[in-house]
């Protein structure tokens, strides 16, 4: 009996951890429209747009001023920003 109770307790704790992790990940993700982004670019001097699509996708159309770094390539692009630049993920 004690082993069953312990197993249920462990599974319950793992379930809560997964739920909290998923909920937290969704809260950190911000989706905005292109119109909203352009409004932010006008109102915030230090807006930085990083386009992580492939160069081919980037060349087919991108937001003016966006910097393209393919998501499969490691790059120190963030270090190019000044310390006062807001990075929104």
Structure description:
The protein is mainly α. It has two domains: 1-30; 31-77, no CATH class. Helix content is 47%, strand content 4%. It has a two-stranded parallel sheet with strand order 1-2. It is elongated, with a radius of gyration of 21 Å.
Helix content: 40-55%
* CA-atom Rg in angstroms: 21 Å
- Strand percentage lies at under 5%
The largest sheet is: 2 strands, parallel
Q: How many helices?
A: 3
Mean model confidence by pLDDT:
75
Number of strands: 2
Q: What distance lies between the first and last C-alpha atoms, to the nearest angstrom?
A: 47 Å
Give the total of domains. 2
Shape: elongated
The secondary-structure class comes to mainly alpha
Model regions low in confidence, pLDDT < 50 over at least 5 residues: none
N-to-C series of helices and strands:
HHEHE
> What topology, given as strand order, has the largest sheet?
1-2
Features:
89 residues, mainly alpha, 2 domains, two-stranded parallel sheet, elongated
What secondary-structure arrangement, pairings included, does this model have?
Blueprint lengths: L1 H27 L5 H10 L6 E2 L3 H5 L7 E2 L21
Parallel strand pairs: 1-2
